[in-house]
Amino acid sequence: MVTNLSLRRHIWLLFIIPLLFSCKENPETFAIHSPIYPSGTEAVSFTLRKIDGNVSEVKLFEFVANVNSQGDLSATTPETEIQSWSSPSFPLTFTRSSGYGSNKLVTYRFQVKGNNKTYNHRISFATRPYPVPNQAAPVYVVGNQDKVLNLVFIPDTSMNSRMTLFYNSVRSQIDSTFHQEDWVRRFRSSYNFYINPVTAIARDFDSGLSHVLPSNSSELSFAQGKVILHFHDIRDQAGGGYFSAEYYVRGTMLHESGHSLYRLADEYDSNSASHWEEPEFPNNWDNQSDAEAAAPGYNKTTADVRKMGTQDWYRICNNQCPMRSSGTPINNYDEPCKTRILHTLLKRASN
Ligand SMILES: [Zn+2]
């Protein structure tokens, strides 16, 4: 159990360390493969894009294992270098033209050298169909399931005839939302992504109906986030551990996953908004003086404290924070939300 005091110390260190070492030259890169959940015969492309910094060399490695219906791995190949780049220009892509075959779990690793440091992106994905009945297929797995946050993408029935669009949107959500938002992307090794083999039905909030959960919902308890991606525009809602989102929205993805992954509360003014105050590192306060007292800890002043709606609920985050604004574009989380995200990731990592 991490005490509040030691947690505060850890958080302080995590804020200070990037300040000391975040010279521009340190590269920041992101890896993705496409298709995100390939069939055994599809060619697979591996892409590394760069946000910032100097990169002098990149190498790409892979190894492949068989997966049986119990999920056990066998006949794992030795890790092999399949491509290298010196003085690379970004984004760089390598396409493996022959498919990996059926019942495979593929692991690839981009080794990146730059600014006298070397680091790796190591990612595993299954080929489609995943042979383990009723289990979500790993499509972008980077860490121990018990130590990181796990998000399952579930196709709404409106995606039944549009599964290529669904797969492409899962890839896009990983690359353009979770690996894009300025804070979440720093923890790229703290999020695993899966695709569910069966559909669900996302219901419009205004219909008063709850989402229809997938028939394998009892197998998804490992996941902190479960999102039903749908084609038609509806008013999204969360409930029963599930949330819904249009396949293309990024701000809504951050907002709704903010509720389920980190228990962040709503920051917008509405009688239907969900406000509550978490005992540790809240992003809502139920009285003004507590919010004003918390403000300096987030490099804010009492002038940054805003009342939300007509009830006694207060926020410190700015107007652009995803817990206040959702929709298609992506905005960055503000300080109270960032601190709660970090607190959540530390608690998972110390499991
Ligand atoms: Zn909300």
| SS elements, strand count | 16
Mean pLDDT: 92
* Strand and helix order: HEEEEEEEEEEHEEEEHHEEH
**Spatial strand sequence of the major β-sheet:** 9-11-10-12-14-13
Going by helix content, strand content and strand pairing, the class is alpha+beta
Give the CATH H-level superfamily of the domain at 25-132: Immunoglobulins
Give me the number of helical elements: 5
Largest sheet: 6 strands, mixed
CATH architectural designation of the domain at 25-132 = Sandwich
> Which band does the percent of strand residues land in?
25-35%
Q: What oligomeric state is this?
A: single chain
- Indicate the CATH class of the domain at 25-132: Mainly Beta
- The low-confidence parts are 1-23
What's the short version?
With 351 residues, the chain is of the alpha+beta class.
Task: Describe the protein in words.
By secondary structure, the chain is an alpha+beta fold. It has a domain at 25-132: Sandwich (Immunoglobulin-like). Helix content is 19%, strand content 27%. It has five helices and 16 strands. The protein has helices at residues 4-21, 163-178, 251-262, 288-294, 335-349, and strands spanning 28-34, 44-52, 57-67, 73-74, 80-86, 92-96, 104-114, 117-126, 137-140, 149-155, 191-195, 225-230, 238-239, 242-246, 306-307, 314-315. The strands form four sheets. The protein has a six-stranded mixed sheet, covered by helices on one side. 38% of the residues are buried. The model is unreliable at 1-23 (pLDDT under 50).
